[in-house]
Design goal:
The chain is mainly α. The protein has 14 helices and two strands; from the N terminus they run αααααααββααααααα. Strands 1-2 form a two-stranded antiparallel ribbon. The protein is globular, with a radius of gyration of 19 Å.
Length: 320
């Protein structure tokens, strides 16, 4: 067995991703269900729930209920886990509450909204089997707030007229999944429009001159939380069924170029603070560390998934 796959198998929290995303098991298969159960019982999942702030705001960085749910959902924890229901209730209450509604502004004909918040709530509720009519309400709001170019933005400057990568990727991910579950053609169309925000820029390049939009966009990380990078972008494109678009090629080439000699991929930066609970961004969970030369199992699991879906990986044992 390959060295990167050995590393992935040594992390129980990656059991579902290895089974479904890397090795291609069907999501409803026995193998997938066992993987999800192993992930849910893992030390990492347990730690995420232990550190979760159940009294403070759900959006507390990165230990509020909103973030913990999104992390558990991304790892592939078992759907229908009712022990997570109170965290989902906290999240619904926040994004559907009157206080939150007061922060939504219509300026120069565009709703200024950090739509990644609603997007993560929708996506997490669907992935974790906790969705109800409130999920549909959040979807309807995203559709109402979508900008003419297909995305969303919270920039309150009247002259701002271009969607944000940061605020568009997660809503696109949510709408694509909702459309898959519901079969709603209108929602699918909205997800496709959002995809154009990225595809028209080849996932990381400015339209006007082809230069890199932001240096962080080409640095791999896990978890990215709300931050955009090419791996996160390509992963969402794979989930949505857009990865075959030829405009993903440059980003796929760049991702492949970052593969290490052992077949894995590095985490080039991190948004978590593993120490000092008093600091914003505290997250004690270990995500494999950052290094330009050392394989990070979490980044590797997502990168192998993207390359497999793109048809660039015959098997996880294939070396660069």
């Amino acid at each position: 067995m390959s060295q990167p796959l050995d590393q992935l198998n040594s992390e129980p929290a990656l059991a579902w991703k290895v089974a479904v995303n890397v090795l291609g098991a069907e999501p409803d298969s026995t193998t997938a269900r066992k993987g999800a159960q192993t992930t849910r019982r893992s030390a990492l999942a347990t730690q995420l729930l232990e550190v979760c702030d159940r009294e403070g705001p759900p959006y507390r960085k990165w230990i509020g209920a909103h973030w913990i749910l999104s992390l558990l959902a991304d790892l592939g924890c078992t759907p229908g886990d009712e022990t997570l229901r109170p965290l989902m209730e906290m999240t619904y209450k926040t994004w559907l509450g009157e206080d939150h509604a007061k922060n939504i502004r219509l300026i120069a004909g565009r709703t200024r909204r950090c739509a990644s918040q609603e997007g993560n709530a929708i996506w997490s509720s669907l992935r974790l089997g906790l969705a109800d009519g409130r999920t549909d309400e959040l979807v309807s709001r995203l559709l109402k707030w979508q900008w003419p170019d297909g995305g969303w933005n919270c920039d309150k400057r009247p002259e701002a007229d271009t969607s944000s990568f940061m605020e568009t990727l997660i809503p696109m991910r949510a709408l694509a999944l909702h459309a898959k579950v519901s079969g709603d053609a209108k929602v699918r169309s909205a997800a496709e429009r959002a995809g154009e925000v990225f595809l028209s820029r080849h996932m990381f390049k400015r339209k006007r001159d082809g230069t890199v939009i932001d240096r962080h966009f080409v640095l791999l990380s896990y978890p990215p939380y709300w931050h955009y990078n090419i791996l996160f972008g390509l992963k969402v494109m794979a989930e949505a069924g857009f990865l075959s678009d030829p405009r993903c090629k440059s980003a796929l080439d760049l991702l492949e170029s970052k593969r290490l000699q052992d077949g894995g991929f590095p985490a080039e930066e991190s948004y978590s603070r593993p120490t000092n609970p008093g600091l914003s961004g505290y997250m004690p969970a270990q995500w494999g560390g950052t290094s330009t030369k050392k394989t990070n199992p979490f980044v590797t699991a997502d990168a192998l998934y993207v390359l497999r879906v793109a048809g660039r990986l015959k098997s996880p044992v294939q070396q660069p």
